[in-house]
Specification:
Radius of gyration: 27 Å
Number of strands: 7
Strand content: 5-15%
GO molecular function, one term: acyltransferase activity, transferring groups other than amino-acyl groups
Shape: globular
Protein name: EF-hand domain-containing protein
Strand order of the largest sheet: 1-7-6-2-5-3-4
Order of helices and strands: HHHHEEHEHEHEEHEHHHHHHHHHHHHHH
Main location: membrane
Number of domains: 2
Largest sheet: 7 strands, mixed
Transmembrane segments: 43-74
Helix content: 40-55%
Domain EF-hand: 375-410, 412-447
Length: 508
């Protein structure tokens, strides 16, 4: 089976092997560890925060009033079709300086490295890594360039008006047509002879913990015009600004930032990047090359994570899937192992090979055997370790199967529940006991164990001590019909149920 497996067989623990640590850019941990930090935070919360909040509110309201005046008489269509000029443009510069005062009041100490370009030099500015709402300090420093932002920002009280004054390009993430329109608008403005402001983009498209640069979106690179890369850093002992998908809330970060006497921020303007002919023809190549330049300056690696990974993590957390925070790492390792799609995991469930002495206590050798991962045991060990957080040398293979099958493809809630029933029916009896039933529901619907037990009792009216899948689905169709999504192909919905029932008949 290869060198590593030989060592394992002869008794050397799999935990002794060194493997390259995986980077998860969507997780940030922040805790006040020492008594001194806690006491200092408490005191400054009482003394410093009220003063700062009061002054910040004053400047925000003042900026909002000026923005309201500046946009008075300007229709949305006019705001979209031509740049502001005259006194409105001058007022925008004043508002930007006013808003910059907010960051100073909040304790942000900005250090600028390099020289910002003009629009004639670079119509686009790419800022990374994007890790915080504090990154907007670069925007106000530049005098309020147009930004590419998610559409929801337009409805933020007070700040929405200020953002609208920059004549932003909004992207509605769940609307595929909006993305195409946004790309066209970027091309139109970047190549226009009108005096549009520079366009500031966050090419990663989401926030990370700055441990790497994730994949850049291609939209801003389609125009094929010069771009100025801008790197941002927060060299602070206590990181109170990083806002990721798993970590402190925005409100907690804002509170802790306001309790710091000062917070350092460095913005480095790199030389303008001029694309060659090949990069002009290939936006993806252009984006990757700009990312490489920025990563070198920052001293961090590039990792091919995307916004879709964030969506997957969010879904996993809502479902309370086991090891939800690590599923982006699982996805990357599976790709290294050549596991495209979920064919191998699905085949395992359909076959008679999905049996184990104790599926909650699977060793590394058993895991490799079950998943047929002999070709690259080093990567397989990394995958195994994700599910072996306590270094016991044992994992629950059901956690792995459910995490992969529930998130790798776009499935309905009902389809995921059917898969969960199949996964937790390890005895292949077509029945789930109360314990496994609760696990199946808690890790798919995100409900509490207490509520899952109540459902079990309602479905198991005859008190048989087990529940069949079809009995639960009949009950759910009556009492929680939202499980069946409207408009979903019914035949597709019941595909896995048919597999499950056929398997049960064979056993009978």
């Amino acid at each position: 089976m290869g060198k590593m497996n030989t060592k394992l067989v002869t008794g050397i623990s799999q935990m002794d092997c060194d493997t390259e640590p995986m980077i998860n850019p969507f997780v940030h941990h922040l805790e006040l560890k020492t008594t001194y930090e806690k006491i200092k935070t408490a005191i400054l919360t009482l003394i410093l925060v009220p003063v700062r909040v009061g002054l910040i509110c004053f400047f925000v309201v003042t900026g909002w009033i000026l923005a309201t005046i500046g946009l008075y008489g300007v229709t949305e269509q006019e705001l979209h079709e031509k740049p502001l000029d005259g006194w409105r443009k001058s007022l925008k510069s004043l508002i930007a300086k006013l808003i910059f005062c907010i960051y100073t009041i909040g304790g942000i100490r900005l250090k600028v490295i390099g020289r910002p370009s003009t629009r004639s030099e670079a119509p686009l500015v790419a800022l990374a890594p994007h890790s915080s709402f504090m990154d907007s300090v670069a925007m106000v420093y530049l005098g309020g360039p147009s930004i590419v932002a998610k559409g929801e920002t337009a409805s933020i009280p007070f700040f929405g008006k200020l953002i609208n004054y920059t004549q932003p390009i909004y992207v509605w993430r769940d609307d595929p047509d909006s993305r195409q329109k946004s790309v066209k608008e970027i091309i139109k403005r970047a190549t226009s002879e009108l005096d549009w402001p520079q366009i500031l983009i966050f090419p990663e498209g989401t926030c990370t913990n700055r441990s790497c640069l994730i994949s850049f979106k291609n939209g801003a690179f389609y125009p094929g015009v010069p771009i100025q890369p801008v790197c941002i850093r927060y060299p602070n002992k206590l990181d109170t600004v990083t806002w990721t998908w798993e970590g402190p809330s925005a409100l907690k970060l804002l509170w802790l930032t306001l309790t710091q006497p000062s917070s350092n921020c460095e913005v480095e303007f790199l030389p303008v990047y001029y694309p060659n002919e090949e990069e002009k023809r290939d936006p993806k190549l252009f984006a990757n090359n700009v990312r490489a330049v920025m990563a070198k300056s920052l001293g961090v690696p590039v990792v091919d994570y995307t916004y879709s990974d964030c969506k997957m993590m969010t879904k996993a957390k809502e479902m309370k899937l086991p090891f939800a925070n690590s599923l982006v790492e699982v996805r990357k390792l599976r790709k290294k192992l050549g596991l495209q799609g979920t064919e191998r995991e699905e085949a395992l469930l359909k076959s008679n090979n999905y049996t184990c002495r104790d599926c909650s206590k699977v060793t590394f050798i058993e895991f490799v055997e079950i998943m047929r991962l002999h070709s690259n045991e080093q990567v397989a060990l990394q995958l195994f370790r994700i599910y072996d957080k306590n270094n016991t040398g044992l994992v629950d293979i059901r956690d792995y199967l459910l995490g992969v099958l529930a998130t790798e493809e776009d499935k309905t809630t009902e389809e995921i529940i059917i898969l969960a029933f199949m996964i937790y029916d390890v005895k292949r009896s077509g029945k789930l006991t109360a314990d496994n039933f609760c696990k199946a529901l808690c890790h798919t619907l995100g409900i509490s164990q207490e509520y899952a037990l109540q459902i079990f009792d309602q479905v198991d009216r005859k008190q048989l001590g087990f529940v069949r899948l079809e009995d639960f689905l009949k009950w759910s169709a009556k009492y929680i019909p939202h499980l069946v999504y409207p408009g979903v192909n019914e035949k597709s919905n019941w595909k896995n149920l048919e597999i499950y029932q056929n398997r049960e008949k064979k056993l009978d």
